[in-house]
Each structure stands twice: as structure tokens, then as C-alpha cells.
Amino acid sequence: MGASVGTRSEDEPMMDINTTPLxxxxxxxxxxxxxxxxxxxxxxxxxxxxxxxxxxxxxxPQRNKIAIEPNGTVLWNAAPVDLNTLRQYLExxxxxxxxxxxHIQPHPEARYEVVDQVxxxxxxxxxxxxxxxxxxxxxxx
Length: 141
Hints:
Blueprint: H1 20-36, E1 63-68, E2 74-76, E3 79-81, H2 83-93, E4 101-106, H3 112-124, E5 130-132
Parallel strand pairs: 1-4, 4-5
Antiparallel strand pairs: 1-2, 2-3
């Protein structure tokens, strides 16, 4: 008869699990997963802004001037703007430190409605340093 190791007899069931086939199967699966994983590109996808040929907003870091013409045209540093663009310029000026002065010069014959709309835009933009210039032109009216 064969030599027996330990005290186990031939009729008793084997209590130890043979893990070698399990480890072999797991290693094969691991290799298959590694092979099937797509190669990662180490790039970050970013939506870049499209090139814009428009010039930067004409904002003076010291003082800016809003003029209102008799025909209702609003001028920002002598360039015509609409009220939405004016608001954007004013919001940009509030981010500059120190905050630039804002000079307002409505023409004596400008409609009050347009001046009121411009003043409302200035108030909504929370401009802190503002003043009216050219008040001497109203002395004759």
C-alpha cells in the first residue's frame, strides 16, 4: 500500500480546495481584460473659442465717456453702441481696479427717454464712480 501523509484515511473526503485551476482562470481573464481595454489617450477635450476678429472693448482704465446724441445714438468713448453692449462694457469696468470714472454727457436736445434708459443700464451695472460732464451747455436752455 501507499504511504499516507498525515492522519487522513483513504475513505475521508478531501477538505482542501485546489486553488491552482482557479488562479489560472483568473489570470487568463485578467490578461483578456487588459488586451480588450481601449488605449487611453491622455488628452483633455476642450471646446476652444472660435477666433474673433473684433477688437477688444474700448475700455479706458482711467475714465470712460458716454455721450447721447440728439437722434438717440449712444456713444461709448466716441464709438456707437447699443444698450446691451453698453451694459457689457459697464460690467467689465466694474472688474477693473481701481474702478475707472464714468462721464455722462447727454446732448441738450437728446430725448429724455434715451437718457433714462442709459441711466437705468448704468444703475443695473452698479457703477460706483459716475458724473455728468458738460453741464454748462444747459445754461442757455
